[in-house]
């Protein structure tokens, strides 16, 4: 065996044994790939090189110039690389800063001649209760004032930039959770002005714990007792439409702690923030918070915001400023609603697969395709393929032709063994016979998948798919090809 092949095999064995990397169905001779690329066998038995960071091309021979070269933004839009940031869900590695008169992911929409980008689809009205603009009552607990000194405060009610892709019906339904609870928002995207450290320095109530329904002994963010102007911030990595927030307190040392009132500020660049204003435009709006440590309080923003950064500023707190929360919103085009896998509106018969793994080879313990729904619960709670092969697939029949703008994937656990799809391709069809693999820049797009068994991983398509059938084609995986998913669109 040649030395290069021996090293590739040895490396593969070590990586698999450590559990640090996902494995593909078959490693091919990695000497075929340059600059440390991993050689995989594609679905058609062709050689495919998975390139390390900094390299690209068919055999990883080209130096990566970055996602902004060439400039993917139209109409003189400026491309900004979102480097040194990691997110539980993945969008593109850049954002386009549009010039005046244009909007959209790539500044392709002219706001001077608005027209709907996608057909609207009405969904059930949710989260109806909104807070009034009344000022908060006197309280005896910790109160923080005068936040405006360090940040820009608007003098009028903020009005979002017109977005031709957002119809009235979609605007009213822009209430998807953005990933604090599900894990789509990574820890690195959450920051705070301070952190409370207790119990001899062992307990750290950091901002990454401020996720709705977070559990455990230390399960929320708490600001330092010495922080006079505390805040917690989420960086969404790209401009999104944010329509509301759900807040929750927590219990520390057996005592309830929560935010009684708070303000919300937003920003496009993370430097200049504006506070949401009250109905009259005369001052910052103060939102009512929680009344106990575990109940949920929903606050909707009217109008919704277009922002990349969202900050919550405690105004009054009970015992301490302790918070768990979730943000609500959608993509700017409004076409990013779940298409029916998680809520079972897509029937079981419309989920099919290339094969099904059966524990102990028993039908009663089969990991069938209809289990492949996001957040599916139970001992058997996902689809698992019979073999670890690039020829496996999971298919969804949407019943009718739909606009599909993204996908959320999730792994699972089988008898304590973590399993997931680490990378995949997406194919689509209108008749279930002729299939087209989704491409970007003329080549099949390989999407980055999961890295554990439970977190959500969200991928947005740069060009929406219009199709009835959608297939997920695993490229690499950990232990077994195991998948739960949701499709997004309208």
From TrEMBL:
Disulfide bonds: 51-60, 98-107
Limits of the EGF-like domain: 24-61, 64-108
GO cellular component, one term: plasma membrane
Keyword Disulfide bond: yes
Any one GO BP annotation for this protein: cell adhesion
Keyword Metal-binding on entry: no
Signal peptide positions on this chain: 1-22
Location of the F5/8 type C domain: 174-330, 335-490
MF (Gene Ontology): signaling receptor activity
Pfam families attached to this UniProt entry: EGF (PF00008), F5_F8_type_C (PF00754)
InterPro entries noted in UniProt: EGF, FA58C, Galactose-bd-like_sf, Neuropilin_MCO_CoagFactor
Keywords assigned: Cell adhesion, Disulfide bond, EGF-like domain, Signal
Protein name in UniProt: Lactadherin isoform X5
Lineage: Eukaryota, Metazoa, Chordata, Craniata, Vertebrata
Underlying gene: Mfge8
């Amino acid at each position: 065996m040649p030395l290069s092949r021996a090293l590739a095999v040895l490396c593969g064995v070590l990586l698999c044994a450590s559990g640090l990397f996902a494995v593909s169905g078959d490693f091919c001779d990695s000497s075929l790939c340059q600059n440390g690329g991993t050689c995989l066998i594609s679905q058609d038995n062709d050689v495919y090189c998975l390139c390390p960071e900094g390299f690209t091309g068919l055999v990883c021979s080209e130096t990566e110039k970055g996602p902004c070269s060439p400039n993917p933004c139209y109409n003189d839009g400026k491309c900004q690389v979102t480097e040194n940031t990691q997110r539980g869900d993945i969008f593109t590695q850049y954002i386009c800063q549009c010039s005046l008169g244009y909007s959209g992911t790539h500044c392709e929409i002219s706001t001077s001649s608005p027209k709907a980008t996608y057909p609207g689809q009405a969904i059930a009205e949710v989260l109806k209760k909104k807070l009034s603009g009344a000022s908060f009552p006197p309280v005896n607990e910790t109160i923080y004032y005068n936040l405006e000194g360090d940040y820009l405060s608007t003098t009028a009610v903020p009005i979002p930039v017109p977005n031709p892709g957002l119809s009235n019906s979609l605007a009213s339904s822009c209430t998807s959770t953005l990933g604090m609870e599900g894990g789509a928002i990574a820890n690195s995207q959450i920051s705070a002005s301070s952190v409370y450290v207790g119990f001899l320095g062992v307990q750290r109530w950091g901002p990454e714990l401020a996720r709705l329904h977070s559990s455990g002994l230390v399960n929320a963010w708490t600001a330092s007792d010495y922080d006079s102007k505390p805040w917690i911030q989420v960086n969404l990595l790209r401009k999104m439409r944010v329509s509301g927030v759900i807040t929750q307190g927590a219990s520390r040392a057996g005592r309830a702690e929560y935010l009684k009132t708070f303000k919300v500020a937003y920003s496009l660049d993370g430097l200049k923030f504006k506070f949401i204003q009250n109905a009259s435009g005369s001052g910052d709006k103060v939102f009512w918070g929680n009344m106990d440590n575990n109940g949920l309080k929903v606050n909707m923003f009217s109008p919704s915001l277009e922002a990349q950064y969202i900050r919550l500023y405690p105004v009054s707190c009970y015992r301490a400023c302790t918070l768990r929360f979730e943000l609500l919103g959608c993509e700017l085009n409004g076409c990013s609603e779940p298409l029916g896998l998680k809520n079972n509106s897509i029937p079981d018969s419309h989920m099919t697969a290339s094969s099904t793994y059966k524990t102990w080879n028993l039908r009663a313990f089969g990991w069938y395709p209809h289990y492949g729904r996001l957040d599916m619960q139970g001992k058997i709670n996902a689809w698992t393929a019979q073999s670890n092969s690039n020829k496996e697939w999971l298919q969804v029949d949407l019943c009718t032709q739909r606009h599909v703008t993204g996908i959320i994937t999730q792994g699972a656990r089988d008898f304590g063994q973590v399993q997931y799809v680490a990378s995949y391709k997406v194919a689509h069809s209108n008749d279930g016979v002729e299939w087209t693999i989704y491409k970007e820049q003329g080549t099949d797009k390989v999407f980055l998948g999961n890295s554990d068994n439970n977190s959500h991983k969200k991928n947005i398509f740069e060009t929406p798919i219009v199709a009835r059938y959608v297939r997920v084609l695993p490229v690499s995986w950990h232990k077994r090809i195991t998948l739960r998913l949701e499709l997004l669109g309208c």
